[in-house]
Every structure is written in structure tokens, then in C-alpha cells.
Amino acid sequence: MLFLFQVIRFTISFVFAPIFSMHSDQILPVLAFYVFAILTVGSAFVVVFAKSIMRAVFALMFTFFGVAGLYLSLHADFLAATQVLIYVGGVLVILIFGIMLTQRLVDADLRSGRIQLTPTLISLGILFLFMLLLIFNTPWNIRGPAQFQSTTFDIGTLLMTEWLLPFEVASILLLAALIGAVGIARTRRSEQ
Prior knowledge:
The chain is an all-alpha fold. The protein has 8 helices and no strands. Helix 2 (about 25-50) runs antiparallel to helix 3 (about 55-75) and helix 3 (about 55-75) packs antiparallel against helix 4.
């Protein structure tokens, strides 16, 4: 028990020590990063451990928003906008409609009845030790905060000039996959 308390105390001091040694103009981005990280990890736990599939999907929405916030804190505005538009606006809405249109899935219990606690804890312990070794043995190149520059204009210019052909080929492949999925679904429905 004492060891666990020391590990928790060390982790808290390791996480919050940089905040106390910063200037007042640097604290807000670090706190925003921690808030988005806690939101992402916490809602991901709800996704994994929720009994209801609807609760899991709504927790997945908060996970996607948390990841978008992490992208914003890393000054990747294009990735944040893409995260919100594609995953929250597209994938999540499709999941919600799919669940609502399928009557059996709304009330489905997601628990399988088997929880393998020992292998899970062993795997998590090994992963935690590996991450600690990685954190403490990596020579981190710490620099001051960078000036924010929007990347959206540069990415849009590159996609519409230099990378236009691969962009269009990818869109045609995605369209072909969508048409193929609709064709397979229609064939299976007509066979039933």
C-alpha cells in the first residue's frame, strides 16, 4: 500500500511539477492539454466499460472531441477540424443511426460475462513499465512555445496543386468501395 501511495505521489508530482515552474502565460496551454487528455482517456474508459451501446457511442463522441482538442493544443488546426468533421460529423452519426434503426442493438447488453483480470493486469503492468522506461530514457528536445501558424491554407494549396492526382485517385477508390458495399448489401438482401 505504501508503494502504491509513493507511485501515485511521484506521478502527480511528475505531472504537475512543470506547471508550477512556468510563467503565467504558459500555464493555460498546459492545463488545456491536461484537460483534453483527461477527457479523452476518461471517455475512452466509458466506451470500453459501458453496459449500453448508446452510452458507449456518446462517450465515443467525447473521445473524438478530446482528440480534436489535443490536436488544437499541438497547433494542428487542420487535423482538429478533420477530426470533428469526419469522425464526429460522419462516423459517429452513422453509428448512432445504425444503432437506432436496428431495434435489437439499442437494448443490447455488451458484457460478455468473462473478465480475464489477471492477464489484463499483467499486460497493463508490462506496458506501464515499458512506457516509463521509454519516458525516462529518451533525450527530450525541449524548446519554448512555438508561434501558432495555421496549416489549413498550406495543406489546401498542396492538395489542389501538387497532390491533386493522388487526392482524386483516393476519392475515386473510396467511391468505388462505397458502390461495391451497396451492391453487396443489395445482393445479400435479395437472396434472403
